[in-house]
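Quick one:
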Amino acid sequence: MVKNGKTGFIGGGNMAEAIIKGLTTSGIEPGTLLIAEPVEERRSFLQDKYNVSVTDDNNAVIDTCNTILLCVKPQIHVQILQAIKGKFHQDQLFISIIAGIKTKTIEEALGGTPRVIRVMPNTPALVTAGASALCTGIHATNEDISLARHIFEMMGKSWVVEEKLLDAVTGLSGSGPAYVLSFIEAMSDAGVKNGLSRDVATGLAIQTVLGTAKLLLETGEHPAVLRDKVTSPGGTTIAGLAALEKEGFRNAVIAGIDAATGRSVELGRK
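Output:
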């Protein structure tokens, strides 16, 4: 259980909602969650759907919550952090999901010796199937990282990494759902091109991706081993794989993750 009283959110967007859903469906009392969100329509939505407390004042979160999740866009992090600088106390833990912004940047912006955990989650957390990677700031404790992992494992799985690797995490799993969705869409288009109806093609594509991921998780085998098991000599699968390789499939995926990783690095420098 999340301890030490109320848990607060600065920002109430999609990822904040995923965390709220994970906490409330795992037994955390909605009344212990306070969400600061500037858009009135969004506040009303979160309050009505999850029965949480809402406010338009970030300072209300700082004043009343001991665990504070920073869920704002990187482009506005400076003004958000400057507005709460020096107002926190040492018993508070900050958990940041701000893409590309390093713990050192957050610590310096807040002033003093804030305890900061940085997390890169992804959107499947909305259906409690997220992948999150965490790292610690200089003042955070082992107990802090355990608490943060507990929170994010309510909505999926988590890994602890060195902070220098979080840009790669952003490029791979943070942006990864978009790659998988594009792949599913392309599979569906190919099915339609070859005569399947759209609903059948999309359904087959979704279930194929879901089932393959589950098979990989449950067997623990290397992807190449499982791939070889469905690739018969001279068969349809090897013909398809050869065509994908000819079109640069593997290199395109790597290039996409490289580009997203690079953009994460750029955001952290601003």
